[in-house]
Specification:
Blueprint: E1 3-7, H1 12-24, E2 29-34, E3 54-58, H2 64-73, E4 78-81, H3 88-93, H4 96-117, E5 128-134, H5 159-178, E6 182-187, E7 189-191, H6 200-210, E8 214-217, E9 223-228, H7 229-242, E10 248-251, E11 256-258, H8 259-276, H9 279-283, E12 299-302, H10 317-323, H11 331-344, H12 346-354, H13 357-365
Parallel strand pairs: 1-2, 1-4, 2-3, 4-5, 5-6, 6-10, 7-9, 8-12
Antiparallel strand pairs: 9-11
Helix pairs in contact: 1-7, 2-4, 4-5, 6-8
Bound molecules: nicotinamide-adenine-dinucleotide and 2'deoxy-thymidine-5'-diphospho-alpha-D-glucose.
């Protein structure tokens, strides 16, 4: 039995991880620590809230006293660190929060882990600090460049990726200097249930349903390598189970797509869904697909993101050969599952977007999320 501390567990990937872990590892305890920033949403954890193996703590990884006492009090032996500011556009308009949470926050957590696991008489017999990072630390690829491997030199280009790169280096240093048992995974773009609709795929789905413009940055030629979120979660599980201490593992879907192709795929899927499900016309009367028009008519090319990385691609050979990792979803099957989830969970994304889920939290938790 393991006692996990999952930071950022009310965010997109963290919530998917918590659902998966409680289902697949029913004998483990899962404590979620999350500051509930705009991106954290307790409604994403509603279905596990009655599980005795789960506890939610509202708190900031910048609070060293809280993180240290939580690790000690709960007998935590495994930290899976998701908490971060994660949106590149926000790192351009307001980079400081990215340095605070991603760099200083990660360092606080490392210090708390060191205090409880290396400097304490009550330390658990084994421990693991797993750091969830991104492929963006490797910078941008040209068309024919080989995909990022674990030995690709770091070349972060945005305040977001620079802050994640800094946190990766700090994690590495805590093994080499202090002996903290760490692993890191660098993953490509995720999509799937519970993703905040500021990111490309959920934003395009929501705007298509509401008849709003679909803003494509620049000429739409930028390429990302897409992975269904549960496959990322399974990749992290494999690193926890089989990963070698001090190693980094790339996780990716081998599904490179240009943004404009992603957007056109979503448009076509929505047109098809409206043709097959007549109730959608009533539910989303503002959608072009409800009015005999094509969803693609909403595509709008807008000013490019400053410093926009052109291409990311992950070489996941090490995870495949060493850990046995392989994605279970193709891009097509993952997108179908995502669209179905979005259509079936309208209340979730509406509440997230208008902020009213905070009232939901107050009703369900009486304002106390501890
Ligand atoms: P997210 O923005 O959806 O969620 C982040 C969570 O962290 C939120 O619940 C937020 O409330 C919490 N948080 C933020 N600051 C905090 C703080 N100071 N203290 C405690 N909690 C705090 O992010 P995500 O997309 O789920 O990403 C999770 C992790 O995975 C991040 O570290 C990100 O860098 C990494 N990652 C994301 C992707 C992706 O495609 N989304 C891909 C690779 C790696
Ligand atoms: O590669 C992994 C990274 O993927 C993660 O580390 C980040 O946390 C995550 O946010 C994501 O970063 P991106 O910047 O690639 O994701 P985003 O969804 O913001 O954008 C995907 C692509 O789509 C990117 O090239 C920018 C473009 N885009 C995005 C938005 C929101 C648009 O063209 N229009 C948009 O409105």
């Amino acid at each position: 039995m393991a006692n996990l501390l999952v930071t950022g567990g009310a965010g997109f990937i963290g919530a998917n991880f918590v659902h998966y872990w409680l289902k697949e590892h029913p004998h483990d305890r899962v404590v979620v620590l999350d500051a509930l920033t705009y991106a954290g949403n307790l409604a994403s954890l509603e279905s596990v809230s009655g599980n005795d193996a789960y506890r939610f703590v509202k708190g900031d990884i910048l609070d060293k006293e809280l993180t240290t006492s939580l690790i000690a009090e709960e007998g935590i032996d495994t930290i899976v660190h998701f908490a971060a500011e994660s949106h590149v556009d926000r790192s351009i308009s307001g980079p400081s929060a990215f340095v605070d949470t991603n760099v200083v926050g990660t360092h606080n957590l490392l210090q708390a882990a060191k205090a409880c696991w290396l400097d304490s008489d009550d330390a658990p017999s084994t421990h693991r600090f797993h750091h969830v990072s991104t492929d963006e630390v490797f910078g941008s690829l040209k068309k024919d460049d080989p995909a990022f491997s674990e030995t690709t030199p770091y070349a972060p280009n945005s305040p977001y990726s620079a802050s994640k790169a800094a946190s990766d280096h700090l994690v590495r240093s805590y093994l080499h200097t202090f002996g903290l048992q760490v692993t890191t995974s660098n993953c490509s773009n995720n999509y799937g249930p519970y993703q905040f609709p500021e990111k490309l795929i959920p934003l395009m789905i929501v705007n298509s349903l509401e008849g709003k413009p679909l803003p494509v940055y620049g000429d739409g030629s930028n390429i990302r390598d897409w992975l269904y979120v549960e496959d990322h979660v399974r990749g992290i599980e494999l690193v926890l189970q089989k990963g070698r201490i001090g190693e980094t593992y790339n996780i990716g879907g081998n599904e490179e797509r240009a943004n404009i192709d992603i957007v056109k795929t979503i448009c076509a899927m929505i047109d098809e869904a409206f043709a097959e499900q007549p109730d959608l016309v009533e539910r989303f009367p503002g959608a072009p697909a409800a009015n005999g028009a094509s969803t693609e008519s909403l595509v709008t090319f807008v000013t490019d993101r400053p410093g926009h990385d052109w291409r990311y691609a992950i070489d996941a050979t090490k995870s495949e050969t060493e850990l046995g990792f392989s994605p279970s979803q193709t891009f097509e099957s993952g997108m179908q599952a995502t669209l179905e989830w979005m259509l079936g969970n309208e209340a979730w994304w509406r509440a997230v977007m208008d902020g009213s889920y905070r009232e939901w939290v107050a009703t369900h938790y009486g304002g106390n999320t501890e």
